[in-house]
Amino acid sequence: MKKKFISLFLATCMAASAMSGALATESKIEGEEDVTLAPVFEDDGDIRSAQYNSDGKLVITLDPGHGGYDSGATHTWDGKTILEKNLNLKIALACKEELEKYEDVTVYMTRSDDTYIGLADRVVYAKEHDSDIIVSMHNNDAGNGTTGAMVLISRGEYRPELAEIARGVGTKILEQLSALGLKNRGFLLRSSSDKPDNYYPNGAIMDYYSIVRNATLQNMPGMIIEHAFLDSYSDYKNYLSTDEKLKALGVADAKAIVEYYDLSLKGASKTAAELGDAPFTDVRNDKWYYNAAVFCYQNNLMQGTSKTEFSPNVIMTRAMFVQALYNYAKPAEKAAATTFTDVNQSSWYYDAVCWAEQNKISEGMGDGTFAPNAKITREQFIRLMFAYAGAESPQDGAALKNFSDGAKVAEWAVPSMCWAIENGIVVGDVQNGVKVLDPKGQTTRAQAASVLKGYVENIVNKKPEETKPDETKPNEGEQTPSVDETKPDTNEQTPSTDEQTPNTDDKAPSDEGTVSEAD
User: What is the C-alpha separation between 440 and 298, in angstroms, rounded?
Assistant: First the structure.
């Protein structure tokens, strides 16, 4: 079915970034007329982590668009009729081949031959294989010779964490395709029509494109790549006319995914277990967090989530982090009962929460709850560290001025974030040439390890004359991407994560400066 061109200025429900006047495609078979799946709720009911599976394995489903009786866009060039479905399959196969050169990644294909599969069924397939993302491969046809690549993603009005991941991967893909010479047409965001059944569970109108909409409902990032315009002879000749050129597109997609998820080429690195530094098979020595993870293990600051796994990409929950601090402090006596209404006495983290409340390390979310299973944000993480250290910090927020998003730090978190910056515990990251903190981003175990390492080296063990900050930092610029499905059940025993954090000669937590960690 030939796709037809729609201009953004004619569709107020569309939005695109990276350029004005971006072009979009529309095909009935790709739109809202397709089946809409029932929403899936996991763990905390709505949020999927920006990171991938708890065992450190990335599972990705590649979806070659169209197939079978549905040829997609068609065009005749140089006496040859070109079918989009065939181009999509070759690009996807090349992408799969390239991705499989990397460690800890499993790639599935919704189709590997000329078979038609319903759009909703493609998402169901990805979900059944516990995929961390579904990437649908397409090529465009505007009907007027337009050129370039674009990526279709969710508007993010429901489960915005998923849209953040898709945007992060999509940004890398557009960069890689641009490097091949394709024009970057940016992102396309489109709403469904205003019909009774076209609303997400939170009341937001659904996204139009089936892959994007249904992936969101299944709690999984989904995206569509429109690589080039088949009706443009220049795009066809330069990027679509030979198998070699189609392979280059697939490899570009793979490189983008590799970069976003920080994958390691097979044989190019060794694990901590292989090197004898720690028992972890999922911590490799080419990763920014390697030294921090090994340091925390060797100094009994953090243990693994199992005997052989550190799970660097798992998102820390508030309960997990308070438990780690509690184990680190090893108080001689149990604290008084907590007042938080959502912390049960049978919970594995109960004593830790009681201790944190009594010592004014945490006053919860400001509504009488502690939210133990909520993913801890970076500013909340630093705030708890600050309270535990009993530290002091200037209140003017001057340290935040060096970061482009410093103004996004919540008022209650300004002193603690300044303290962390001034002491080299947090140095931020560089995105698009500017320094960022990403204070509202979630904290992975790798980032937690880096902060704890910085705390011990720069605060606990720092000599008076030492001023040099720790150069090991959390990767605060990574998209949140991933899935955090490792949150412990409140009725289960304490998990292996951080079970053996040690006591040190660190000073006792201060009762000063307590605030709610709610934003």
Answer: 30
How far from chain centre, in Å, is Cα 232?
A: 35
What's the CA gap between 466 and 469, in Å, rounded?
9
- In the three-class reduction of DSSP (H, G, I as helix; E, B as strand; rest coil), residue 344 is classed as coil
Task: Measure the CA–CA gap between 220 and 135, rounded to whole angstroms.
Answer: 11
The Cα 374–Cα 365 span in angstroms is 10
pLDDT in tens, 448-460: 999 889 888 888 8
Q: How far from the centroid of its chain's Cα atoms is residue 355's Cα?
A: 32
Name 75's bridge partners: 82
For tokens 């409902």, name the residue.
Answer: 217
- Answering whether pTM is above 0.90, one says no
Instruction: Enumerate residues 6+ apart whose C-beta is below 8 A from 280.
Output: 271, 272, 273, 293, 297, 304, 308, 309, 310
Distances from the Cα of 106 to the Cαs of 393, 459, 508, in angstroms? 46, 41, 46
Residue with tokens 């103004």: 407
Q: Which two tokens stand for residue 183?
A: 């024009």
Q: Which of 360, 63, 39 is nearest to 217 (CA)?
A: 39
Query: 22 near 188, Cβ under 8 Å?
Result: yes
Q: Are 98 and 8 a contacting pair, CB within 8 Å?
A: no
Torsion of the alpha carbons at 113, 117, 119 and 121, rounded to the nearest 10: -110
Total residue length of the chain: 519
Instruction: Give the separation between CA 288 and CA 168, rounded to whole angstroms.
Output: 19
* One-letter amino acid of 182: L
Q: Per-10-residue mean pLDDT for the chain, 519 residues long?
A: 34 34 40 79 49 68 97 95 98 98 96 96 96 97 90 96 92 97 97 89 95 96 97 97 98 96 92 96 92 90 86 86 83 91 93 93 90 89 88 78 92 91 85 83 88 86 52 38 32 36 32 38
Q: For helices 243-261 and 84-99, what crossing angle results, to 10°?
A: 50
Q: Which amino acid is at 370?
A: F
Rounded to whole angstroms, the Cα distance separating 280 from 292 reads 13
- Mind giving me the DSSP string for 274-324? HHTS-S-SS-BTTSTTHHHHHHHHHTTS---SSSS---TTSBPBHHHHHHH
Residue 31 near residue 101, CB atoms below 8 Å: no
How far is residue 17's CA from residue 53's CA, in Å, rounded to a whole number? Answer: 30
